[in-house]
Amino acid sequence: MYRSTLELRGMSRVSAPLIKNILLLDSEGKRVAVKYFSDDWPNLASKLAFEKSVFTKTQRISARAEAEIGMFDGYVVVYKFISDLHFYVTGGDEENELILATVLQGFFDAVGLLLRSNVEKKTVLENLDLVLLCLDEIVDGGIILECDASVIAGRVAMRGAEADVPLSEQTISQALATAKEHLARNWAL
Amino acid sequence: MAQLPPVKIKDDDREDDSDLSPFFGIEKGAVLQEARVFNDPQLDARRCAQVITKLLYLLNQGETFTKMEATEVFFAVTKLFQSKDIGLRRMVYLIIKEISPSADEVIIVTSSLMKDMNSRTDLYRANAIRVLCRITDGGLLGQIERYLKQAVVDKNPVVSSAALVSGFHLLKSNPEIVKRWSNEVQEAVQSKASLVQFHALALLHQIRQNDRLAVSKLVTSLTRGTVRSPLAQCLLIRYTSQVIEETSANAQAGDRPFYDYLEGCLRHKAEMVIFEAARAITELSGVTTRELTPAITVLQLFLSSSKPVMRFAAVRTLNKVAMTHPAAVMNCNIDMESLISDQNRSIATLAITTLLKTGNESSVDRLMKQITNFMSDIADEFKIVVVEAIRSLCLKFPQKYRVLMNFLSNILREEGGFDYKMAIVESILILIREIPEAKESGLSHLCEFIEDCEFTYLSTQILHLLGNEGPKTADPSKYIRYIYNRVVLENATVRASAVSALAKFGAAVESLKPRILVLIRRCLYDNDDEVRDRATLYYNYLQQGGEQEKFLFNGLDVPLVNLEQSLQSYEASERRFDISVVSRETKHQPLEKKTPASKKAAKEATQKGYANGHLTTSPSDAYEKLLNSVPEFAGFGKLFKSSPLVELTEAETEYSVNAVKHIYPEYLVLQFNCTNTIKEQLLEDVSVVVDTSEAEDFVQVASKKLASMPYGAPGQAFVAFQKPEGVLSVGKFSNILKFRVKEVDPNTGDCEDEGYDDEYQLEELEVTAADYVLKTVVTNFRGAWDAIDAENEKVDEYVIGVRESLQEAVQAVTTILGMQPCEGTESVPSNARSHTCLLAGQFIGGAQVLVRLQFGIDAQKQVAMKLTVRSDDPAVCEQVHEIIGSA
């Protein structure tokens, strides 16, 4: 019964990387699509307050070429903007920032693939089903499910679910282009 | 959940959105109507998918469905399984998860989902697993367990990952089922698909997390092998550092196991792995400079990356390292300095604060120049961080206080919000308190600041401080002008504080009194009541002098919070309020917890503590009430003191127990707060058996059991002892928790009838002399000291031995005596060769004790101490010396 307390010490703080939320807001800070995976924000009011706080603290920053990052309200938030859309991924204050950035990039690129690089609020709303599925395929209950953009996009489109679904030529070449871009970016470092 | 108003999309200023958003003018009622198409015999898959999207849009915007609406939608959605359309099926999966049906509704979709789980289409299988595991309860899980186990080792990564991640979530609610998959999960760890490897490793660790040996084995085998996925590699690094942490607790000096693995990861091709490893190395406990160097080197490379995320990650980690190993980070100083101009202000602020930590005394001046330029273009929240860093730098290099104090006073005069100004004033206040040399210049900076301060709160704080500190300076008269200017120029609140501050000068400095009286007389006709009242009161008392003056200016000798509580519970009656019954015990702040929210709260609390100039207290009334409710303790008399909580178990054990020592004049009551952290157990007849063989003065007189202790509900067991009156009995108690265990099924809550007896060894509890002393606050130590007859003084000298610093010696003696340090004398100026510390307390029996400790340290770090005690009761003086003598 008197189990050594040593073996229990410190166990709980070791955890897999956890994503707290993924937000897609418009240029006025209004929700386009959001997904929360944590109980840190128990109700709608606290969620909206967090979104507002993050939006106002980042709106003046140009996060278009490279993903940007900051600590807000005790959370690490990575973000990237394109046209009138703001993409955010939030993690706890101890989280590995580069993992969060990988998830952000996966989400950002997957949406780009699905919308054929036509990423703006209008097209996102017109294809909201794809964007919501995208969120569902990236993270499950806080655990990273997949962060490769082309795999995510493929699963959203249920590609390969039926043998006779033709794979659009354009999508493949696009996927290849993004893959090349990916490689180029990683090698550049 | 409460019904929220419908999402506002029809705002006037969003009229132009009408052609932008396909959801313009969407209404919940209408969409729910539209959802009837789900029931059509001829399903229009496209239309149905659109309606689901609309429902999801509403949910995403924060709309909620009533229970009935949700049920209706759910039932309608289940019909859609008839359609063979792939896109629609994917949407159906998503909306079922979002609606999260109740247990009795789940049954409707179970068969459809189970069919999909056995589908030949991999994506159907994966999604069906995720949905089913999300909505299912324990009962159903047994039926599908076989499929899940197979899915874990499925050749398609999407299926395998779905099962593994679902297992991860299920482990919280149904650990025994998921634990049976160990073999399959282990196989999946070897998967070639990178994300599967990551998910399998996470789940495997989670399953074995309570088995130290198994985790250690896992780490040993995997660190030798090849883990392909960068994410899995990051996990492995986390688990490895955990194993290192636990083994090094036992191991002696020598090479750290697994360090080579961590160091190898620094050369990995994925940046996230490199960073994870570097961070893990910096966080090793007792990390050596040699171990740190390679990690610092890669982080330094990150500093010049083109990606802000990498720069941020590196500078944040180095900032933490700088707190413990400033020298190791100094190599990065040049890169850091270039980051001061970083576009990303978070990075720039972290760079500045790191430099402030690593900088040496000679670089302070140059650094401050750079910061001055930087301060003008960052937001207030970053400025506050910088101000706090400068405060700690100043405490580190007290000789540099002139430069730093000047910097603070300069930024104090610039534009800024309240929080920022508050942070600066707080910093100056702390520097004044900690660095005696800085006092005069600090006070004059503050004087200049209030000449042009827009914040009433800060003005009153500073005036209060001037009133307390000004009279003690070499030339008190120079502050009068600043204070009197406030009386002429400010609003009523500030005027009132200024009058109080003036009066304090009058009372403390005899030579100034006539002039102060002239100034206060001018306030007698102020147009504000409060100012007039204060002026009148002080004017009269200052003229009379004597007792009343003392009462007014010496302050109360009870903590204000205690007084406030007593006044609140005081009911108007014939009996007059008696200040002597107010508890004099000062309690310390609860320790800072490591969650962001409470960190902030604790910080605010400490700041408040500083601002008020004394420690805030927490009520001991709750204990008193609790103890009075126990009939066995009825005749014990008045509770003298309750100790802070003492943990008797380590964190995260099966049973968590902490204790409170309640001291009565002739009795001791030990209160054991017990918590059962095992869901599967109900504990009954819980008692604590106390062995007093090392505490001979104590005789057990009562023990109160706790009848039942269910999971998670804390309860108290008590043991009471009699002890001789008037003697400071000390001793060690060893404790065993005894109880009867009954197994409980956590799902049903059913409990078996027969249990078995068991016991659990707790840590020892010690009663020391400090338990018989209450901390009391004496605001005017000198006055109180002189008030006690010098006859009752006892002086002796002690040799303490070698200590690192005087501060350490002061701390040690204060802790042994358990008394309250007064007038900030607990902090020793750095490099001081001698120091005097003043302590106040109340002994059991009610005698007030004042202690003057004079320390001296020689070149060999030998510390000697002269202990002077005064008390109304000469016996108590003896006791204090005995405590020190025997310690």
Please provide a brief summary of the model.
Chain B: InterPro entries: ARM-like, ARM-type_fold, Clathrin/coatomer_adapt-like_N, Clathrin_app_Ig-like_sf, Coatomer/calthrin_app_sub_C, Coatomer_g_Cpla, Coatomer_gsu, Coatomer_gsu_app_Ig-like_dom. With about 190 residues, chain A is α+β, with helices and mostly antiparallel strands.
The total count of helices of chain B amounts to: 37
CATH class of the domain at 621-767 in chain B: Mainly Beta
CATH class division of chain A:
Alpha Beta
For the record, give the distance between the C-alpha atoms at the N and C termini of chain A, rounded to a whole number: 54 Å
Which sequence of SSEs, written as H and E, runs from N to C of chain A? EEHEEEHHHEEHH
Number of helices of chain A: 6
**How would the global form of chain B be characterised?**
globular
Biased composition (Basic and acidic residues) (chain B): 588-606
Region (Disordered) (chain B): 588-616
Protein name (chain B): Coatomer subunit gamma
Membrane topology (chain B): Peripheral membrane protein
List the helices and strands and how they pair.
The complex is a heterodimer of chains A (189) and B (887).
Chain A: E1 19-26, E2 31-36, H1 44-58, E3 68-72, E4 75-82, E5 85-91, H2 97-114, H3 121-126, H4 128-138, E6 139-140, E7 143-144, H5 149-156, H6 169-188
Antiparallel strand pairs in A: 1-2, 1-5, 3-4, 4-5, 6-7
Chain B: H1 28-34, H2 45-60, H3 67-78, H4 86-99, H5 103-117, H6 122-135, H7 138-152, H8 157-173, H9 175-179, H10 182-189, H11 194-208, H12 212-224, H13 230-250, H14 259-265, H15 271-282, H16 289-303, H17 308-324, H18 326-329, H19 333-339, H20 345-358, H21 364-375, H22 380-396, H23 401-413, H24 418-434, H25 439-451, H26 456-469, H27 477-489, H28 492-508, H29 513-523, H30 529-544, H31 546-553, H32 560-569, H33 596-612, H34 621-628, E1 641-642, E2 646-647, E3 655-663, E4 667-676, E5 681-694, E6 699-704, E7 706-709, E8 715-722, E9 731-743, E10 756-761, E11 765-767, E12 773-775, H35 781-787, E13 793-802, H36 806-817, E14 820-821, E15 834-843, E16 848-857, E17 862-871, H37 874-886
Antiparallel strand pairs in B: 1-3, 2-3, 3-4, 4-8, 5-7, 5-9, 6-8, 9-10, 9-11, 12-15, 13-17, 14-15, 15-16, 16-17
